[in-house]
């Protein structure tokens, strides 16, 4: 196999990998859109805290119930609000 053939084979494999990654990224983006729509459309409060009980996320309904903006809760401790 010549050096040119080897390079062409490598390029072909990289193109296939790139296409696979593009498809995975599209699927992940669509999944995130569905998840976000579900989380934001519910009337329930949904939030996420880290192992130190700091807020990572609150959905819009929970923020509205507490009268807060998203920037007011990030990295704040759960106990600061309850």
What does this protein look like?
By secondary structure, the protein is mainly alpha-helical. It has 2 domains: 1-41; 43-82, no CATH class. Helix content is 56%, strand content 9%. The chain is built from 2 helices and 2 strands; from the N terminus they run αββα. The chain has helices at 3-41, 60-66, and strands at residues 47-49, 55-58. A two-stranded antiparallel ribbon has the order 1-2. Strand 1 and strand 2 form a beta hairpin. The longest helix is centred in the first third of the chain and has 39 residues, at 3-41. The chain is elongated.
Range of helix content: 55-70%
H/E order of the elements? HEEH
Number of structurally distinct domains: 2
Oligomer: single chain
What is the rounded distance between the termini? 69 Å
Question: Over the alpha carbons, how many angstroms does the gyration radius reach?
Answer: 22 Å
The number of helical runs is: 2
Strand content: 5-15%
Mean pLDDT: 91
Unreliable stretches = none
Task: Specify the biggest β-sheet.
Answer: 2 strands, antiparallel
Number of strands: 2
Shape estimate? elongated
Biggest sheet: strands side by side, in what order? 1-2
Class computed from helices, strands and strand pairing:
mainly alpha
Could you provide a short overview of the structure?
With 82 residues, the protein is mainly alpha-helical. Helix content is 56%, strand content 9%. The chain is built from 2 helices and 2 strands; from the N terminus they run αββα.
